[in-house]
Design a protein that fits this description.
By secondary structure, the protein is mainly beta. The protein contains 5 helices and 44 strands. The strands form 5 sheets. The chain has a 22-stranded antiparallel barrel. The protein starts with a helix and ends with a helix. Mean pLDDT is 81; it is low at 1-21, 105-115, 771-775 and 783-788.
Length: 789
């Protein structure tokens, strides 16, 4: 059987090689007037006014086609340049040469090549921000919300709701808490973004804990021998929030040195109001509660880097990044507990005060081996983060006419240190065959401690039942290899990653040693000669290690009878992803697939074993969590002035919380639509809709959500200045969360900033001086690990 399989594979390759012989490779490069490569320009080959092939240039401005030999018209376009059309002849191994784009002094009036906001490549969706008027005036959150498969809520950014999704900016992961990540993404302007890539299943070159796929955001081309940058400010106001978000981005280049920096801030106030009812299944116990949380945010971040190219093939880079987050404010609540006809009234005030700071230092050395794009890299990172929480609680409770007061407080300190080192080789043997390999070492060090105290007449006393100290150290060694090959209509990407993990700590009573292998494969087949129709099959295995914050048993009081805590005994989760995608006419796509998880890490609400009236939220390992899905992406360009992007996703989920427990099934639907109207005088109108049916997470159900927004944008001063005004969440509604177990049913109705009508005004100014060049940034070695912070 094995010999027959090998014979079949060999025969298939011979047959494909014979078919490929009918195709001729043709390559070329697109540059600007200064000689710098033009990244992500649209390049199309046509014959008799019919498109034969098309693609976007890479980071070096290169493109490559496999088409039948003959005469063609080559069309090149990139916004900000005059369209280019040339007659070319393709023969076997043709180099079409270098094509130079000329800067356009005015806005392009006619489009030679129709550009699309969204298109599908073999393993990813690509959102062409730089080429789309639909992106004007939007921020990073707006653009992600209209990207295929991307879900955004106040807790996380994910691909189809999967946990473990990584977000990158120019090859660096945004390793921030949810609130900082949202603030950073809102500070990004579409004018600074070139493209966004959504990768549902990552390959062996990513750390194995990128289980939820990756979102990669690439910034636009900068300037040479001068200064390029942007200044932006936007403010959001509603009955539940008043926020102000300034940001800046700077790049300076002179000779072989490139300097860059950026900064952002998120300052304001938010308010969250919740009402809950809890019915306990045993007896006649019930709870009615109301909570009003007011929070002030003082968040900011800065980064600076330098890249020096001391020869054509060698460069070094350093980067430093720092961000700080401060959140503080009161949470006033009242709770009435009725048990066997007896009422216990609680009136409480919690004051939450938390500060977190993080800095990262990065170094890399990059050697370009040849002119085909082969590289050897040495990468190193060090990240340190501190988190300090000072929380004070005051409670008055009464049963009958007798009131009792209690005052208590907690002090939580956390320190995280992550060190990584990577050696990576990428060898291009030809435009059709590439081999990559690498080694990586990661050291993770975590220290958490907490002290809980209560007040008596004679002073503060330690509550040893709640206090803790957890030290956790993790060493991960990894090696990977990847092969990329193209033969005519056939494309293959196959890789294998091996990781050995040694972990100690978790209260000094757990030691883990485990070796895991993570294969991945991506097989693509062009169904026609032009490649406009294609079929893509993929498989990937991944691991999800618990986040450091999920391991710490910190006790955070949410209300009188609810608190949140971590779980030091969490195990890593494994997932297997399989998908099949049909791409039609380069842009429309239909995907079906499944994500199978074992020991999935999810949240549960449970009854406190020492006081069943109290409930707590924590993380647990589920026995099974399987998702079967179908997604449809339909980008339309009805006219030059009207575009629409539509994403539809259906998911069939099955979850088993405990070993031997009942398998629960649930169906989800989500829809995302964004349409843009381009009006005279550089006015733009956007309509955006996102809707999702109710979802089940552990034993918690979240009701259906619908969001509708409209915005008006205007460009001034030769497109350097953009003013935008929008109204969001026009379909305002409360979020309803219901938790069920054998002991209780709890329903909470919440009014929060992101589900109330809000008004936003934004202003962006872009400035530049000098000649065009391609900006470089420092690549991170520890990007994948930082997400666990």
């Amino acid at each position: 059987m094995k010999k027959m399989l090998l014979l079949f594979m060999a025969s298939a390759l011979v047959l494909e090689s014979a078919r490929a012989a009918k195709q001729s490779p043709a390559t070329g490069q697109v540059i600007d007037e200064a000689g710098a490569p033009v990244e992500y320009a649209t390049v199309v080959l046509t014959r008799e006014k019919r498109q034969i092939a098309g693609m976007a240039t890479d980071t070096e401005g290169r493109f490559a086609f496999n088409v039948p030999a003959g005469d063609y018209t080559l069309l090149v376009q990139f916004i900000g340049y005059e369209p280019l059309a040339k007659q070319v002849r393709v023969a076997d191994g043709t180099s079409l040469g270098i094509f130079t784009l000329t800067a356009s002094p005015t806005e392009i009036g006619s489009v030679v090549v129709k550009t699309r906001l969204v298109r599908r490549e073999a393993d990813r969706f690509v959102v062409d921000v730089a080429n789309s008027p639909a992106a004007i005036g939007k921020d990073g959150i707006d653009l992600l919300q209209q990207s295929p498969g991307v879900w955004i809520d106040d807790e996380k950014v994910s691909i189809n709701g999967s946990s473990g999704t990584k977000v990158y900016i120019d090859d660096r992961e945004l390793r921030m808490e949810s609130s900082q990540l949202m603030s950073y993404l809102r500070a990004l302007r579409a004018e600074d973004i070139r493209k966004i890539e959504v990768i549902p299943s990552t390959g062996a070159d990513y750390d194995a804990d990128a289980s939820g796929g990756a979102i990669r955001i690439y910034l636009r081309r900068k300037r040479d021998d001068g200064l390029d940058g942007s200044l932006a400010f936007h403010t959001v106001h509603s009955s539940m929030q008043h926020n102000y978000n300034p940001s800046f981005n700077l790049n300076y280049h002179r000779s072989k040195l490139n300097l860059y920096g950026s900064g952002w801030g998120w300052f304001g106030r938010t308010r969250t109001v919740s009402d809950e009812q809890t019915a306990y299944r045993s007896g006649t116990t019930g709870i009615v509660a109301h909570s009003d949380l007011g929070e002030k945010d003082r968040n900011f971040g800065v980064s600076a880097g330098a890249v020096y190219e001391f020869s054509e093939r060698n460069s070094i880079g350093v980067e430093f990044e720092y961000y700080r987050n401060a959140e503080f404010g009161p949470n006033d609540s009242r709770t009435d507990l009725t048990a066997d006809g007896v009422l216990t009234a609680n009136r409480s005030a919690y004051y939450l005060d938390g500060e977190r700071g993080q800095y990262t230092a990065t170094f890399n050395y990059i050697h370009r081996i040849d002119t085909l794009g082969s590289t050897f890299k040495v990468l190193a990172d060090y990240t340190e983060r501190s988190s300090d929480n000072l929380n004070d609680y005051f409670n008055r409770s009464a049963t009958g006419a007798v009131w009792r007061d209690s005052t208590y407080r907690d002090r939580n300190d956390s320190r995280y240190r992550i060190t990584t080192a990577t050696l990576a080789l990428e060898k291009h043997f030809s435009p059709r065959i590439t081999f990559s390999a690498g080694l990586k070492y990661t050291d993770n060090d975590m220290h958490n401690s907490a002290r809980y105290e209560y007040l008596r007449n004679d002073g503060w006393h330690d509550n040893a039942d709640y206090g803790y100290r957890v030290d956790y150290t993790e060493h991960i060694g990894a090696a990977y290899a990847i092969l990329n090959a193209k033969f005519g209509r056939f494309g293959l990407t196959a890789g294998l990653r091996g990781e050995f993990t040694y972990a100690t700590g978790k209260g000094d009573y757990v030691t883990q040693r485990y070796m895991s292998l993570f294969p991945n494969a991506n097989l693509s087949w062009a169904l026609d000669k032009q490649g406009s129709w294609s079929l893509v099959a993929s498989y990937a295995r991944a691991i999800e290690r618990p986040g450091f914050w999920a391991l710490a048993p910190q006790r955070l009081q949410i209300s009188d009878y609810t608190y949140q805590t971590g779980n030091p005994s969490l195990r890593p989760a494994y997932s297997d992803k399989v998908s099949l995608t049909l791409v039609a006419r380069y842009k429309y796509s239909l995907s079906v697939g499944m994500n199978l998880h074992s020991d999935a890490i999810e949240q549960l609400m449970q009854a406190d074993p020492y006081n069943p009236d109290k409930l707590f939220i924590t993380w647990e390992n589920f026995d099974d969590l399987d998702n079967y899905y179908v997604t449809l992406n339909l980008p339309f360009q009805f006219t030059k002035w009207w575009s629409l992007n539509l994403n539809l996703t259906g998911i069939r989920q099955g979850q088993r919380i405990e070993n031997g427990g009942r398998l629960q099934h649930r169906n989800y639907l989500s829809a995302n639509a964004s349409t843009t109207f381009t009006l005279p005088a550089r006015f733009f109108i956007d309509l955006d809709y996102f809707g999702m049916s109710g979802i089940l997470v552990g034993n918690v159900t979240i009701n259906a959500q619908h969001h509708l927004g409209v915005s008006l944008k205007k460009r001034f001063s030769g497109e350097r200045l953009t003013l935008s005004a929008s109204v969001n969440n026009l379909l305002s509604s409360r979020q309803v969360v219901t938790a069920r177990s054998e002991e209780f049913v709890r329903t909470v109705r919440i009014r929060m900033p992101w589900n109330r009508v809000s008004f936003r005004i934004g202003l962006t100014y872009n400035f530049k001086a000098g000649k065009a060049f391609r900006s470089r940034s420092v690549e991170s070695s520890g990007a994948d690990e930082k997400g666990r912070l």
